[in-house]
Amino acid sequence: MAVARVRLVGGDGALVSAKGLLKSFGEFQAVKGIDVEVQPGESFGFLGPNGAGKSSTMRMIACVSPRSGGELSVLGLDPNIDGPKIRARLGVVPQEDNLDVELTVRQNLQVYGRYFGLGRAHVKAKAAELLEFAQLTDRADAEVDSLSGGMKRRLTIARALVNDPELLLLDEPTTGLDPQARHLLWDRLFRLKQAGVTLIVTTHYMDEAEQLCDRLVVMDSGRIAALGSPAELIARYCTREVLELRFPPGEQAAAEPKVADLAERTEVLPDRLLLYAHDGEAALAAAHNRGVRPLSGLVRRSSLEDVFLRLTGRTLVD
């Protein structure tokens, strides 16, 4: 399937602007000439499976990995020339927590703040503010190893905010967290966006992208496949509803020819058929009239997962 090359439209005030951005590791091209602009105050997402090029793009924006080609501007500066200046104005949340386990929760914030040359009094006050933001005040003097995974993640985000960054980069922020911890983290990030912090998020979770992102790109194999808000992408690439017909293993492929004309498009998955139709209930009734007897039939609204199936032919967790 041909993949569209997309230029994200934005004004001269874009915090991040890339044109033809490339990243290679030897003969392997991880990022294949993407064009990106991120505007102040928005929450922008890179959505895609593992290996799509999301993290490689983030590392170039974070000025920890040089670009192999193309143009890149971050906060109006060139990362190849002004890397230290840019990093001083960024907050970075890596995929893996890299907290100092020999320090307490509070000390992790205070010591990190000193790396930016902030005064002791300022760092002390900022640490107290961030502990409250991350809901960790009651654990301020606890050892990091005693924290849950969700608490460690909130502490990592709090630490990334110690220098009051203009741009916060979050690489797979909720991977490995349980649903309750994920929703609490989403709430903290939403509060940051309300406060005017610009967010760039990579994720392979569709629900996370829908919750957090004003706009996003779908990446696949180092290229941009689509751009827009979650609602725009769903409207552009999907029908209003999807009918899910679940079958015993191996029976879904045989049923597909019997119902294909009932939908604008069908997808055959290992345990089900997806029928993309504007009226899912009507499609379900018609399937039953034709003698199709699935284990279950579910009509739902289209989602970003459906967009990804349309663009790449596989699920995000492949």
From TrEMBL:
Into which family does the record put it?
A: Belongs to the ABC transporter superfamily.
The keyword Nucleotide-binding is annotated on this UniProt entry = yes
Native organism: Labedaea rhizosphaerae
* This protein's name: Lipooligosaccharide transport system ATP-binding protein
The GO annotation for biological process reads:
response to antibiotic
Q: Which InterPro entries match?
A: AAA+_ATPase, ABC_transporter-like_ATP-bd, ABC_transporter-like_CS, ABC_transporter_ATP-binding, P-loop_NTPase
> Which key words are in the record?
Antibiotic resistance, ATP-binding, Cell membrane, Membrane, Nucleotide-binding, Translocase, Transport
| Domain ABC transporter residues, every copy | 16-246
Gene Ontology MF terms in the entry: ATP binding; ATP hydrolysis activity
Please indicate if the UniProt record lists Cell membrane as a keyword.
yes
Instruction: Give the UniProt entry's GO cellular component terms.
Output: plasma membrane
Where it sits in the cell: the answer is: Cell membrane
State the annotated membrane topology for this chain.
Peripheral membrane protein
